[in-house]
Amino acid sequence: MNGNALNLVNQTLVLPGALPLDGGQSLPRVEVAYETIGTLNADKSNVILLFHALTMDQHVVSTHPRTGKPGWWSKSVGPGKVIDTDRYYVICANVLGGCMGSTGPASLADDGKPWGMRFPVITIRDMVRAQVALLDAMGIAQLHAVIGGSMGGMQALSFAANWPQRTRAVLVIASTARHSAQNIAFHEVGRQAIMADPKWQDGDYPAGKGPDDGLAVARMAAHITYLSEAGLTEKFGRRLQDRVEKTFGFDADFQVESYLRHQGLSFTDRFDANSYLYITRAMDYFDLAEEHGGKLAEAFAGAKARFCLISFDTDWLYPTTESRIIAHALNAAGAPVSFVELSAPFGHDSFLLDVPAQDRVIAGFLNQ
Amino acid sequence: MNGNALNLVNQTLVLPGALPLDGGQSLPRVEVAYETIGTLNADKSNVILLFHALTMDQHVVSTHPRTGKPGWWSKSVGPGKVIDTDRYYVICANVLGGCMGSTGPASLADDGKPWGMRFPVITIRDMVRAQVALLDAMGIAQLHAVIGGSMGGMQALSFAANWPQRTRAVLVIASTARHSAQNIAFHEVGRQAIMADPKWQDGDYPAGKGPDDGLAVARMAAHITYLSEAGLTEKFGRRLQDRVEKTFGFDADFQVESYLRHQGLSFTDRFDANSYLYITRAMDYFDLAEEHGGKLAEAFAGAKARFCLISFDTDWLYPTTESRIIAHALNAAGAPVSFVELSAPFGHDSFLLDVPAQDRVIAGFLNQ
User: Fold this and answer.
1) Is B214 touching A (CB cutoff 8 A)?
2) Residue of B185, B220, B233 lying closest to A189 (CB–CB)
3) DSSP of B110-166, one letter per residue?
4) Among residues A24, A189, A258, B7, which one has the fewest Cβ atoms lying within 10 Å of its Cβ?
């Protein structure tokens, strides 16, 4: 036990070999930027690998270097917190294809120029493969648990299906085993918004001069899907922004317009447009059953871990039905699984917000 | 009775005077382009005014001059059809702010140049006011019915609230008495996509050289909201487009991507980007209760008509709860109202598609 020391480290590993990819190519030189919180015990048995969501990164607890904001799950990860770093050693790596230090389309290729759209299309499994290589390099044979929400949940499922010996527990929050037509459609809108921006230049934009307008529109469209209709109504309703009457113009009269515009603009300060294209593509390609002959239960045939699934009743992006499908497949595969739908008003984003019931489920599952 | 003669006429009326607007301005010269189907009877008592939705127009039955496709409700309007033009004289006018002949931002202002963004911001009530002026010019004192779906339903509600003496029946399909925060949010994404397109040029683009890329993205985002998740899954699922394997690229691998791109592109051939800005703004401003002291029942205090409301169980844009709010307000106002939620798999767009139960409700209501 470390008392209340956070023991926070950020570093980058260059993988020792080339990384093979699902698309058939391989990436010759891959860097993985990662954060660790807590202390690795002597037999390396206290490790939790945390997978981040689409627009998150490895800054779980540390202050984000671009926004100056607290880490995205600092509420839940730390000494004495739900994911207790006095007890567990938490690792979170920026995904392959990301833009916060791990190799992605903004990284330099062999010719010294950014990959841009020459970067190979990657999959969720490729993201996990890079992180398994990180575990190998760290000499960690088996994890106490993998945890992920949203796209992080897809990675947790992919890990469980493809590297079943390497974790004792799998926690999947607000996620899905495959992207639906509607999920793909919303991502496609975002990609088209980016590609329609003349500054995109087929992906060959100079650093810091990317298609910010298109990326902001993509973020706005996606952001609506992260919130519930009821949550938006409660938070904004039809309230006006700093005015008492409608202006009969195209300013952001309504608070919800102002909020969305801010979400779009601030996103461009911290995210790379090409990364957004590649990561959304990876999510759209995700279909765990398809990788296993069309039967999701087959994906878990070799599963050795305990599973826990959490969904939220107001999440319309990855609704409870999606978690139920996973639970049924795990049951069919004979894997131990607990599944709970929580009530929370925040829609998909509930997994990042203050939902005490989620804390209880997570702590109970991890500390069994 | 006219036998099976369609008796279809398209014409444009210049309103005799200036049109006052809710924003406080008035429009000096307003043209209203409209289609009539059927024959006006001697005492002008057989008139149905049909209000069109956001991206529709007056071409209810006639072939669309830009797309060459059949009119948007030719399935339901015509001799012997659900809205029987052997019996009724149907009028449908392009809305104020539109781009199919009625005055809108692409029309020429007094200086001989297009209005562009100098066009005043209009409301749903302004749209209705222009159509009431059309009825005045035609000498039609009272309608057999007003009918509208989606934004057409907003116009029907506004008509009933503001000109209660002028119709004997009001039919509102898949609509709402106010735009929710989520509704506004989706429209704002579309507007930002248009305004982010450099070709928009603050609205001063040459005819035919507008912000097509931005408008296509706006249409794509909106189009998702017109369909149900289940409908999208049934229609497309994760099926690939003309290929047997994923390409590991950014082509439209999935059918749903290809479909959405087509929806976006084809829309730009028939719709003006500035019109899209103005009409979506009018919808976002719509809040019938707000116009009447915050109480929706007050809006219907003078209502003389019979009302019928139809919602669809898979419509998540204007879900059944919105129609229920209207029904409660009508009940509170003592107006006769029948309200039915129909089951149909197509989401919001159900009102335009083949739903036999809807036909029965409409015919039953009109022919009482």
Assistant:
1) yes
2) B220
3) TTSSB-GGGSPP--HHHHHHHHHHHHHHHT---BSEEEEETHHHHHHHHHHHHSGGG
4) A24
**Which residue segment(s) compose the domain that A197 sits in?**
183-280
Alpha-carbon dihedral sign for residues A52, A56, A58, A61: negative
A356: pLDDT confidence band, cut at 50, 70 and 90? very high
Residues B105 and B203 both lie in one domain: no
Q: Which residue has the tokens 């290929």?
A: B243
Q: What's the rounded mean pLDDT across residues A230-253?
A: 94
Q: What is the pLDDT of residue B4?
A: 57
Residues 157-176 of B with CB under 8 A from A: none
Using the predicted structure, report yes or no on whether residue B315 has a pLDDT greater than 90.
yes
Phi and psi based region of residue B190 (left: phi greater than 0; alpha: psi -120 to 50; beta: remaining):
alpha
pLDDT in tens, A33-80: 999 999 999 999 999 999 999 999 999 999 999 999 999 999 999 999
Indicate the residue among A280, A305, A322 that finishes a domain. A280
CB interface of B with A, residues 314-333, below 8 Å: 316
Single-letter code of the amino acid located at B306:
R
Coil, strand or helix at B252: coil
Are B151 and B33 in a shared domain? yes
Half-sphere exposure of A353 (CA within 13 A, CB side): 15
**Residues A165, A78: one domain?**
yes
Closest CA–CA distance from residue A171 to any residue of chain B (Å): 26
CATH number of residue B196's parent domain: 1.10.1740.110
Which helix (H) or strand (E) is A169 found in, with range?
strand A169-173
A111 and A229 both lie in a single domain: no
